[in-house]
Backbone:
């Protein structure tokens, strides 16, 4: 099936190809590829997910809102798709720094997925919502809560969600000032190679090194993080600005580097 091939592209981090293919599928006449309403919804969901993962979340926020409104009429197990799209919207809110809104939405997704558990498999939706929730809590300085969510759910996470939870854990440790522990955790992240998380490990490492007073190493890590962000993510991705801000802070405090 065309959609399955596009989903494989997305999983491989080929966000541009996945989005382009998904938009073509969604726009095709209904008789092409036997495309029905469900296929169109799936294609639009994949296209917006790819845009969010690439870093163009703000650009597709209105599209996400429209798709969610359209999907609200689904029933039964089909409700899982609207929760997935809502989860992508939460990721955009986090990227925009709208942490209280993101927290409320992620919490509601968790409640809704619990109500669906008897109809369909929802554990991936739950883990994604938990990762977004932990990220939103971290953004509000609620590091203990974020750390507890990350640690409690890492054992059952995989792939991109595992990488996201691990990054939240490191950020929460850095937020607590526990930089040695944060640095140790970054070494455990080395096995993850998820394009959507490009630069996240470097930013976490640079933050920990900076907190420990190892400024030259922190600058090097920050520069590597920025290079990774610029290579693999869209120029509008919020993480690029995060890496630049961190690098500026480090070099401003260490002008001779």
Residues:
């Amino acid at each position: 099936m065309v959609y399955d091939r596009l989903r494989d592209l997305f999983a491989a981090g080929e966000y541009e190809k996945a989005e382009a293919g998904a938009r073509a599928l969604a726009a095709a006449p209904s008789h092409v590829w036997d495309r029905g309403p469900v296929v169109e919804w799936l294609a639009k969901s994949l296209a917006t997910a790819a845009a969010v993962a690439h870093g163009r979340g703000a650009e597709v926020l209105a599209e996400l809102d429209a798709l969610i409104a359209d999907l609200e009429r689904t029933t039964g197990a089909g409700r899982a798709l609207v929760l997935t799209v809502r989860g992508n919207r939460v990721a955009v809110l986090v990227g925009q720094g709208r942490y209280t809104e993101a927290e409320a939405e992620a919490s509601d997704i968790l409640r809704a997925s619990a109500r669906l558990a008897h109809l369909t498999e929802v554990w991936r939706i739950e883990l994604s919502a938990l990762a977004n929730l932990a990220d939103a809590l971290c953004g509000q300085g609620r590091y203990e809560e974020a750390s507890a969510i990350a640690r409690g759910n890492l054992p059952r996470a995989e792939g991109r969600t595992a990488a996201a939870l691990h990054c939240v854990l490191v950020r929460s440790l850095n937020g607590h000032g526990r930089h040695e522990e944060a640095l140790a955790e970054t070494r455990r992240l080395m096995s993850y190679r998820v394009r959507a998380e490009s630069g996240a490990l470097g930013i976490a490492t640079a933050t920990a090194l900076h907190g420990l007073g190892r400024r030259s190493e922190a600058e090097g890590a920050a520069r590597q993080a920025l290079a990774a962000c610029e290579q693999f993510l869209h120029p509008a991705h919020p993480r690029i600005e995060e890496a630049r801000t961190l690098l500026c802070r480090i070099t401003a405090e260490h002008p001779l580097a």
The chain has a mean pLDDT of 91. Residues 65 and 207 are 34 Å apart (CA to CA). The two ends are 54 Å apart (CA to CA).
